[in-house]
Amino acid sequence: MERSQIHRVSVADQVAGILRQKVLRGEFRPGTSLQEIPLAEELGVSRNTMREAMRILSLEGLLKRSINRGIAVAQLSLKDVHEIYHVRRVLEISAVHAAKKPAPDLLREIRAALEEYEDAVRASDWVSAVSHDLHFHSLLIRFLGNRRIESFYQKTIGELRMGMVLVDRRHDRPDILVPAHRKLYQLLTAGKRKECAAVLARHLDDSESRLSRVMDSHESARVADAAVPKSKRSVRPTARVHD
Amino acid sequence: MERSQIHRVSVADQVAGILRQKVLRGEFRPGTSLQEIPLAEELGVSRNTMREAMRILSLEGLLKRSINRGIAVAQLSLKDVHEIYHVRRVLEISAVHAAKKPAPDLLREIRAALEEYEDAVRASDWVSAVSHDLHFHSLLIRFLGNRRIESFYQKTIGELRMGMVLVDRRHDRPDILVPAHRKLYQLLTAGKRKECAAVLARHLDDSESRLSRVMDSHESARVADAAVPKSKRSVRPTARVHD
DNA sequence: AATTTGTCAAGTGTTCAACAATGTAGACGT
DNA sequence: ACGTCTACATTGTTGAACACTTGACAAATT
Asked: Is the model's pTM score more than 0.70?
């Protein structure tokens, strides 16, 4: 018996976790509306608990509520992507600057993430590659040693990930970003923080414009699709939204 | 008829707003436990709505839930204060650096906040002074022009404010911090961002150590108080907590 | 034909009442 | 004083009900 924390979490939290995974893995596509009753029945919980779970996710930014009209999976706009990358720049660069004498354990973890990332790329497993890429960056944030910043970063990255699973991977080539990561790790261990920050800034700019380009083409395709009058869309793109 | 947005928000959100105010104004002291049924009846809403409202606030960090034991107003530790000031340093300094050519409207708002702050200090209205002080800093964040960062900052400041209302104002002298703010504004309008950032960093350090000192004395007083066996405490300070 | 109005079903927002699961406090015996 | 047990209080969860909005379609109007 080696459980430091007994596994006691509320059902609502568990449901929120399940939904979160489904959203982040792309099982629920952005824009699709989630209805309380069917989902609650599907997971075998009551409507109230499902509401609580959805409330959690909407506060995390993964779901958008529009009052009396229901809840839908959040849809990232280009502006959102820009904003999220701005967040990343501010936090990750601060983190790198804070890595004056980094903990060896953390550096080891970063190295591990890097290797897994490279493995995934070699195996052409893009989904896994994206995951390890983001994990690499999440580890950088740990240099700040700040729980609040970490959870904010994590939440923000979650939104980004949701936007990334959508994109058709054939349109992007994650392997190109590998050398940048290797360089980052190298500069970090060498203690060249300033240079590392500069490389990181360029890398994030590059990554952002890459994603923006892909999303832009998708966006225009989606809009063109919507122009066809027949298609009944379940969710209005310009709904008043709160939360 | 000149209502741009008809006042349509869910009851749960309104309740959350009311509770938020009460917590931030110090009507609910940190550590006090909030019970669902009495509070729900007091505001004339059902228990479920109250639960939703409390869920919102606990995700904001103002309330702490410990499963099956209830919800209590969050209590800032010295470590929390340190972490929050760390967040402030990272974000506010980034913001000042981003103020290359600041919007004139924003500068005007900052000036207004500064003057209100000074007025409050002259009137010895400490509560109002703290409020305007924090508002001044919130406006700095706007230089980043990033909704996500702003709401994160706002949430963090909320936690801090909750901790500040508790401290007996006689132990601190907010007036001392006025010149620093004036200097910040002055450097900002002069476009001396680097220097402004330096002053800001010092100011935040000063502010943190000031609050820490006051809280430390309170803390020890509180602990000593708790040592008296008779006093029935409604909430255990070391409860396992989630959310 | 185009616009307006009425109707209706579906879904959310909210309430209520109950029960189960858990934690709390006091009584009890040792 | 120390644990154990029991009764009570509170939270967690469920299920059902009702009021209101919304969106879509049909009917009525111009």
From this structure: yes
pLDDT band for B235, please (50, 70, 90 cuts).
very low
User: Can you tell me the distance from the alpha carbon of A64 to that of A55, in angstroms, rounded to the nearest whole number?
Assistant: 9
Confidence of residue B79 (pLDDT cuts 50, 70, 90): very high
Cβ distance of B83 and A8 shorter than 8 Å? no
Residue type present at position A194: K
Residues of chain B in contact with residue A147, where contact means CB-CB under 8 angstroms, are: 83
Task: Say whether residue B3 is in contact with chain A using an 8 A CB cutoff.
Answer: no
Q: Can you give the pLDDT at residue B169?
A: 65
Name the helix (H) or strand (E) containing A2: none
- Closest-approach nucleotide to residue A40, Cα vs C1': D14
How far: A33 CA to D26 C1' (Å)? 27
Q: Do A148 and B83 touch (CB under 8 A)?
A: yes
The DSSP secondary structure of A100-138, one letter per residue, reads SS--HHHHHHHHHHHHHHHHHHHTT-HHHHHHHHHHHHH
Give the residue with greater pLDDT, A233 vs A121.
Answer: A121
Structure tokens at B50: 């109250």
- What's the CA gap between B36 and A72, in Å, rounded? 29
Residue A131, CA distances (Å) to A117, A121, A187, A218, B142 in order: 8, 11, 22, 21, 32
The residue type found at B72 is: A
CA distance A17 to A10: 11
- A5 to chain B nearest CA, in Å? 9
**Residue at B13: amino acid letter:** D
Report domain extents, chain A: 11-75, 78-223
For position B224, what pLDDT does the model report?
Answer: 53
Q: What is the CATH code of the structural domain delimited by A11-75?
A: 1.10.10.10
Pairwise CA distance, residues A85 & A164, whole Å: 13
Would you say A167 and A211 are in contact if contact means Cβ atoms under 8 Å apart?
Answer: yes
| Residue A242 DSSP code | B
Please report which confidence band the pLDDT of residue A127 belongs to, taking 50, 70 and 90 as the band edges.
confident
CB contact under 8 A, A84 and B48: no
Integer distance in angstroms from CA B23 to C1' D8? 30
Q: Quote the distance between the C-alpha of residue A148 and its chain's center.
A: 17
Confidence of residue A150 (pLDDT cuts 50, 70, 90): very high
Tell whether the torsion through CA atoms of B126, B127, B131 and B137 is positive or negative. Answer: positive
Please state which of the four CATH numbers 3.40.50.720, 1.10.155.10, 3.30.420.10, 1.20.120.530 is assigned to the domain occupying B78-223. Answer: 1.20.120.530
